[in-house]
């Protein structure tokens, strides 16, 4: 049986030569992300902004206009309605109500009373008080910062500072561009999508580490090649794996996006974007940055001699 | 790496058998499981509320309200008792966690101490010689009180929820003064919220009949309380009741909803202490009004016609039948020591939960099949082996989830699907390496040996970094996110095992069987 070969056995793509292009793309992506973030911000879900979210299934296909005007007439502040997957499924978003927690309960009850018999099923009701929303926001930021830090420290421990710095910068890029994605698409940003961002950080670094591992090995193997040459060789040697793993992950995520249900579709979209971005950042940012950060073979050898390298990683050459 | 010791082989077999054993209950019905002998693992995956349907409520216990109330009580005691003892004072007021006052005459210092000592409970009374006095809630007393108030609240919440017949509720303390309530199968928690929304503090007071409510000023030691039922004229009525609690709801041992003269009423029974006090009060106050107060509202204030000595009575008012039933329930379960506020509520109906499970199953199975096919197409026989390892990985994830009774949520299912995609990474790394070594002119055995050996450090580094992200997600996340972190972490660990050990076993088995030695099917 002929096996699928996505790439020639030994590709010789001059990645390092086009590093300016990669970095330019990265800069554009980041600038764009930051710009959309400041222009339209994130569409914070109920988790982070506090407020009320209800998912209802109506008896007949929902008349959103009618519902909107009727719910809008209630004294519960702005109401946003959107169809959610099916014509009979409606997502109702209420702003945080003025006043204490009791006021939120009253708003939920007001909506229920107004919709009455039209609704076949209250599929989901979520209410997050202002204080909890604030706490969740803070915890989310902490989680993101700490995971970046934790991952950076691990890389530093396993490799050395050039690698840690390069992977950390690539990660920051991934996080910014992913947040930009959520801002640009205005997909609801909630606790679950935050989990997507952190997972992307994990995936992207996973990818980066594999290439770095190869860089380290290549540098020990060759005594005479220049650093860019070696970086390029490491990238080419791992390219097939990079692409294959991205493909299998994207296959699984694609299946989740198509069939996993409406509730986690935004989350899955973020993951899919992140896998692409994470793969790009390894090739286009992390490795070129290694070069710019002045990685030299000498440092690798010293590090190896000082016993910082893992024992189970003898040179193959 | 091409040699596998007996011990390794044995370990792999044991792990896989245990995995199958723990994963198996998920394929059987509950009824079948109950018939199995007890030593067989019979736990199914524990589904989160977002999958099985149910409500999640985060409540806050208003402990500060308890302190405020306590301090207000001290202010009241100082006012009433010092006046009764004819001790002059000025500047009575609150200052942080203290009640402060100063005595007009420094000669009264000792007497004031004696008078107030009985009224301050665990607070600290200080009256210095210059006549300035304070009653302070110490930090330690407050901390202890906080703990006991929250614990007591949890107990009462539990009792009230148990009375509603909810099955398997989870009621747990969270943080300092919060209570997490999870009610599987309850998709509209309104009734539970109603029940938890009242403190249900019941007390019996004598009515101060010398004072006309709303006209005369309320004397110290009494307070004006609204009545539950409005006057026929439509005006809100009130009663001036004595602050002193004659009998409290704490002494109730039973309360039942019943009917009296066609009206729904709550009949109650006191314990011996309560019966004694109730008897004494009614005997000494025949002909006076006796107010029944629930949460600072007078339910009714009947005239005491005769001493009630049996410790039994009824509470009547303008109640609907449901209200009487709820009141009886609340009185039976006991009063909450503090008010509760709902900070967060998430409820999922059974329909959405079932849909999510179905969607999750479809997505994971399809993802699994597609990734398996892709691996076979990309790596041939070795790819098939990796596909088998992937299947075993899924079984192991299921087994660990069941065995640990970790909660599977919808994002958790997403975590499993993501793991399916990422789990093959280890095999991809190994196989790519083997291909490379073959290209470099190594023989099959040597290529496989080097492939596994060389790929290992990258695999470990890559997985540990993702694991770091998963651990942080678990620490900072709540509910469903934790579910995602758990399956992601479990998946990472099991996939390292299956991708490295299981495929190696298969590859080595294949080598030993003496298949073509020239070209590797990869």
From TrEMBL, chain A:
<feature type="transmembrane region" description="Helical">
    <location>
        <begin position="239"/>
        <end position="259"/>
    </location>
</feature>
<dbReference type="InterPro" id="IPR022813">
    <property type="entry name" value="SecD/SecF_arch_bac"/>
</dbReference>
<feature type="transmembrane region" description="Helical">
    <location>
        <begin position="139"/>
        <end position="157"/>
    </location>
</feature>
<comment type="function">
    <text>Part of the Sec protein translocase complex. Interacts with the SecYEG preprotein conducting channel. SecDF uses the proton motive force (PMF) to complete protein translocation after the ATP-dependent function of SecA.</text>
</comment>
<keyword id="KW-0813">Transport</keyword>
<keyword id="KW-1003">Cell membrane</keyword>
<dbReference type="InterPro" id="IPR022645">
    <property type="entry name" value="SecD/SecF_bac"/>
</dbReference>
<keyword id="KW-0811">Translocation</keyword>
<keyword id="KW-0812">Transmembrane</keyword>
<comment type="subunit">
    <text>Forms a complex with SecD. Part of the essential Sec protein translocation apparatus which comprises SecA, SecYEG and auxiliary proteins SecDF-YajC and YidC.</text>
</comment>
<comment type="similarity">
    <text>Belongs to the SecD/SecF family. SecF subfamily.</text>
</comment>
<dbReference type="InterPro" id="IPR005665">
    <property type="entry name" value="SecF_bac"/>
</dbReference>
<dbReference type="Pfam" id="PF02355">
    <property type="entry name" value="SecD_SecF_C"/>
</dbReference>
<keyword id="KW-1133">Transmembrane helix</keyword>
<feature type="domain" description="Protein export membrane protein SecD/SecF C-terminal">
    <location>
        <begin position="119"/>
        <end position="294"/>
    </location>
</feature>
<dbReference type="InterPro" id="IPR022646">
    <property type="entry name" value="SecD/SecF_CS"/>
</dbReference>
<dbReference type="InterPro" id="IPR055344">
    <property type="entry name" value="SecD_SecF_C_bact"/>
</dbReference>
<dbReference type="InterPro" id="IPR048634">
    <property type="entry name" value="SecD_SecF_C"/>
</dbReference>
<keyword id="KW-0472">Membrane</keyword>
<feature type="transmembrane region" description="Helical">
    <location>
        <begin position="20"/>
        <end position="39"/>
    </location>
</feature>
<feature type="transmembrane region" description="Helical">
    <location>
        <begin position="163"/>
        <end position="184"/>
    </location>
</feature>
<keyword id="KW-0653">Protein transport</keyword>
From TrEMBL, chain B:
<dbReference type="Pfam" id="PF02355">
    <property type="entry name" value="SecD_SecF_C"/>
</dbReference>
<feature type="transmembrane region" description="Helical">
    <location>
        <begin position="363"/>
        <end position="382"/>
    </location>
</feature>
<dbReference type="InterPro" id="IPR048631">
    <property type="entry name" value="SecD_1st"/>
</dbReference>
<dbReference type="Pfam" id="PF07549">
    <property type="entry name" value="Sec_GG"/>
</dbReference>
<feature type="domain" description="Protein export membrane protein SecD/SecF C-terminal">
    <location>
        <begin position="340"/>
        <end position="508"/>
    </location>
</feature>
<protein>
    <recommendedName>
        <fullName>Protein translocase subunit SecD</fullName>
    </recommendedName>
</protein>
<dbReference type="InterPro" id="IPR022646">
    <property type="entry name" value="SecD/SecF_CS"/>
</dbReference>
<comment type="similarity">
    <text>Belongs to the SecD/SecF family. SecD subfamily.</text>
</comment>
<dbReference type="Pfam" id="PF21760">
    <property type="entry name" value="SecD_1st"/>
</dbReference>
<dbReference type="Pfam" id="PF22599">
    <property type="entry name" value="SecDF_P1_head"/>
</dbReference>
<keyword id="KW-1133">Transmembrane helix</keyword>
<keyword id="KW-1003">Cell membrane</keyword>
<dbReference type="InterPro" id="IPR048634">
    <property type="entry name" value="SecD_SecF_C"/>
</dbReference>
<feature type="transmembrane region" description="Helical">
    <location>
        <begin position="389"/>
        <end position="407"/>
    </location>
</feature>
<keyword id="KW-0653">Protein transport</keyword>
<feature type="transmembrane region" description="Helical">
    <location>
        <begin position="483"/>
        <end position="507"/>
    </location>
</feature>
<dbReference type="InterPro" id="IPR054384">
    <property type="entry name" value="SecDF_P1_head"/>
</dbReference>
<feature type="transmembrane region" description="Helical">
    <location>
        <begin position="455"/>
        <end position="477"/>
    </location>
</feature>
<feature type="transmembrane region" description="Helical">
    <location>
        <begin position="413"/>
        <end position="434"/>
    </location>
</feature>
<feature type="domain" description="SecDF P1 head subdomain">
    <location>
        <begin position="234"/>
        <end position="338"/>
    </location>
</feature>
<keyword id="KW-0812">Transmembrane</keyword>
<comment type="function">
    <text>Part of the Sec protein translocase complex. Interacts with the SecYEG preprotein conducting channel. SecDF uses the proton motive force (PMF) to complete protein translocation after the ATP-dependent function of SecA.</text>
</comment>
């Amino acid at each position: 049986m002929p096996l699928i070969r996505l790439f020639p056995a030994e590709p010789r793509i001059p990645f390092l030569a086009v590093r300016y292009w990669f970095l330019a793309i990265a800069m554009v992506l980041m600038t764009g992300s930051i710009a959309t973030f400041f222009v339209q911000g994130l569409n914070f879900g109920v988790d982070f902004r506090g407020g009320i979210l209800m998912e209802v299934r109506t008896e007949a296909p929902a008349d959103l206009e009618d519902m909107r005007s009727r719910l809008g007439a209630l004294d519960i502040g702005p109401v946003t309605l959107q169809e959610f997957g099916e014509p009979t499924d409606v997502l109702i978003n209420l702003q945080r109500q003025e006043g204490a927690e009791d006021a939120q309960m009253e708003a939920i009850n007001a909506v229920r009373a107004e919709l009455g018999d039209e609704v076949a099923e209250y599929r989901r009701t979520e209410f997050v008080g202002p204080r909890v929303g604030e706490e969740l926001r803070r915890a989310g930021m902490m989680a993101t910062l700490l995971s970046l830090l934790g991952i950076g420290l691990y890389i530093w421990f396993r490799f050395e500072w050039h690698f840690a710095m390069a992977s950390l910068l690539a990660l920051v890029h991934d996080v910014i561009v992913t947040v930009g994605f959520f801002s640009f698409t205005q997909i609801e940003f909630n606790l679950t999508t935050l989990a997507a961002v952190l997972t992307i950080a994990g995936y992207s670094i996973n990818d980066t580490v594999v290439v770095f591992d190869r860089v380290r090995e290549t540098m020990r193997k060759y005594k005479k090649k220049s650093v860019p040459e070696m970086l390029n060789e490491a990238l080419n040697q791992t390219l097939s794996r990079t692409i294959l793993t991205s493909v299998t992950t994207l296959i699984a995520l694609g299946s989740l996006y198509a069939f996993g249900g409406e509730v986690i579709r935004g989350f899955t979209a973020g993951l899919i974007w992140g896998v692409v971005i994470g793969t790009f950042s390894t090739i286009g940012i992390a490795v070129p940055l290694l070069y710019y950060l002045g990685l030299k073979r000498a440092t690798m050898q010293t590090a190896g001699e000082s016993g910082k390298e893992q024992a189970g990683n003898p040179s193959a050459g | 790496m091409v040699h596998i010791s007996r011990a390794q082989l044995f370990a792999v077999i044991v792990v896989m058998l245990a995995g199958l054993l723990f994963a198996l209950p998920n394929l059987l019905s509950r009824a079948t499981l109950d018939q199995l002998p007890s030593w067989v693992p019979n736990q199914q995956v524990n589904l989160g509320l977002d999958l099985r349907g149910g409500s999640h409520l985060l409540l806050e216990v208003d402990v500060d309200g308890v302190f405020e109330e306590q301090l207000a009580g001290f202010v009241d005691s100082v006012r009433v008792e010092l006046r009764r003892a004819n001790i002059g004072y000025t500047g009575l007021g609150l200052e942080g966690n203290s009640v402060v006052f100063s005595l007009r005459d420094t000669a009264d210092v000792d007497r004031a101490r004696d008078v107030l000592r009985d009224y301050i409970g665990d607070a600290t009374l200080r009256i210095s010689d210059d006549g300035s006095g304070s009653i302070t809630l110490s930090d330690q007393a407050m901390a202890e009180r906080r703990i006991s108030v929250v614990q007591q609240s949890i107990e009462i919440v539990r009792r009230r929820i148990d009375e509603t017949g909810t099955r398997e509720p989870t009621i747990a303390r969270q943080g300092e003064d919060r209570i997490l309530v999870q009610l599987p199968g309850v998709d509209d928690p309104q009734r539970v919220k109603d029940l938890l929304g009242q403190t249900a503090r019941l007390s019996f007071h004598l009515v101060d009949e010398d004072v006309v409510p709303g006209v005369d000023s309320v004397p110290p030691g009494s307070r004006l309380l609204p009545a539950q039922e409005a006057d026929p004229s439509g005006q809100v009525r009130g009663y001036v009741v004595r602050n002193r609690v004659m009998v409290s709801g704490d002494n109730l041992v039973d309360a039942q909803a019943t009917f009296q003269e066609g009206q729904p009423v709550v009949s109650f029974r006191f314990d011996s202490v309560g019966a004694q006090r109730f008897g004494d009060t009614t005997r000494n106050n025949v002909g006076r009004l006796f107010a029944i107060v629930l949460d600072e509202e007078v339910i009714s204030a009947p005239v005491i016609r005769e001493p009630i000595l049996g410790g039994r009575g009824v509470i009547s008012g303008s109640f609907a039948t449901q209200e009487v039933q709820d009141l009886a329930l609340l009185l039976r379960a006991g009063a909450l020591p503090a008010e509760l506020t709902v900070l967060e509520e998430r409820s999922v109906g059974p329909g959405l939960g079932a849909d999510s499970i179905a969607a999750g199953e479809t997505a994971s199975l399809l993802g699994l099949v597609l990734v398996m096919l892709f691996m076979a197409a990309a790596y041939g026989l070795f790819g098939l082996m990796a596909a088998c390892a992937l299947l075993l990985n899924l079984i192991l994830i299921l087994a660990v989830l069941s065995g640990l009774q970790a909660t599977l949520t919808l994002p958790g299912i997403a975590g499993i699907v993501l793991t399916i995609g990422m789990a093959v990474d280890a095999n991809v790394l190994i196989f790519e390496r083997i291909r490379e070594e073959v290209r470099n002119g190594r023989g099959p055995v040597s290529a496989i040996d080097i492939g596994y050996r060389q790929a290992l450090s990258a695999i470990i580094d890559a997985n540990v970094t993702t694991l770091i992200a998963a651990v942080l997600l678990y620490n900072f996340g709540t509910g469903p996110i934790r579910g995602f972190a758990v399956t992601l972490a479990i998946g990472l660990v099991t996939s390292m095992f299956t991708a490295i050990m299981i495929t190696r076993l298969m590859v080595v088995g294949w080598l030993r069987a003496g298949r073509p030695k020239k070209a590797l099917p990869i």
